[in-house]
Amino acid sequence: MKRGTTMLTMSALVVAVALPCLAQVRQLPTDTTTIVGTIETIDQGKRAMNIKTPDGMFVGVNVPESVQRFNEFKVGDMIRATYNNNVIVRKKEPGEPAVDTVATGDAKSATTGTQVQTRTMTANIVGIDRNASSISFEGPNGWKYSRRVVDPMVFAQVNVGDRVDIIWNTDLAVSVQ
Prior knowledge:
Largest sheet: 10 strands, antiparallel
Mean pLDDT: 78
Structural class: mainly beta
Shape: elongated
Helix content: 10-25%
Low-confidence stretches: 1-23
Number of strands: 10
Number of domains: 1
Number of helices: 1
């Protein structure tokens, strides 16, 4: 009985210590954007193209190396490009060094391709707008980013001037229709 009580007490202590740590990392909802349209221009050297959407907008897309038959794409082809952007924000401890890294990877297929990129960057919180439910960040080289915050509890955990690591996991899938 005493052993069971000790185990239960230790488990409760571990959970109590771990909960504040979990509050320091926030995963924001994944933002998915799909672009469907016609290829209007292609730059084979830069692996870039402009897609004209049905509503007349032009969107630039950099095609990943994993799309093996990119050289067969031509003006007029119907294309679908889907971006998934997953963002994680972690509050940094005082004195923790800044980071700024990028890692990429590809998944190969004949007519489709997916490129995954993970970017980690230290930024400062430069603005909090509770009315608009958003936070603004500034990072290296004058980089600026604002993001809508879904969970209002986040506002109680951060202040203007706090340093955070922002981790983006972005994947781009391109396919010819």
